[in-house]
Amino acid sequence: MAQVATCKPTADHVLNTPLEDLLAEFDIELTFWAVDEPDFTGVAVVKRDQVRFILPEGRCDAEREIVVRAMLGQTLHVDLPDLPEPFQLSEFDTDGNPHLVNPKPRGGQA
Fold it and tell me: Kindly report the CA angle at 10 between 7 and 11, in degrees rounded to 5?
């Protein structure tokens, strides 16, 4: 996992490299969870030297591609284009409050 901390890829790399290659390159563990929440698209768990993306079971490949690439970009601090609707990506602050990060908030809010 040292690569995540020391290597920042380009947006082109995150968006165009085959997904399985990206997961291997950055040592990302991808797991699936049985959840019946249509608005839940996934969560990234980042702990010291381990990153795990947890996605709901049964979603289509296109959704998996979009969500994983967006979470990877956020995890690696790569500026990516806004997600298509209805997808949104939020980060949680130290108090557990969510903050929208993609699509980028309008009006200069972070």
Answer: 135
Q: Specify the DSSP class assigned to residue 97.
A: -
DSSP per residue, 41-80: --EEEEETTEEEEEEETT--HHHHHHHHHHHHHHHTT---
Go through 42-58 and write b for each residue having 16 or more CB atoms within 10 A of its CB, e for each that does not. bebeeeeeebebbbbee
Give the pairing of strands 50-56 and 43-47.
Answer: antiparallel
Quick one: which of 58, 26, 23 has its CA closest to 40?
58
CA pair distance 69, 52, nearest whole angstrom: 13
Question: For residue range 51-93, what is the model confidence (pLDDT) as tens digits?
Answer: 999 999 998 999 999 999 999 999 899 999 999 888 888 888 8
> What is the token pair recorded at 40?
């839940």
- Please choose, from the candidates 8, 10, 1, the residue with its C-alpha nearest in 3D space to the C-alpha of residue 80: 10
Tokens (6 digits) for 87: 């997808």
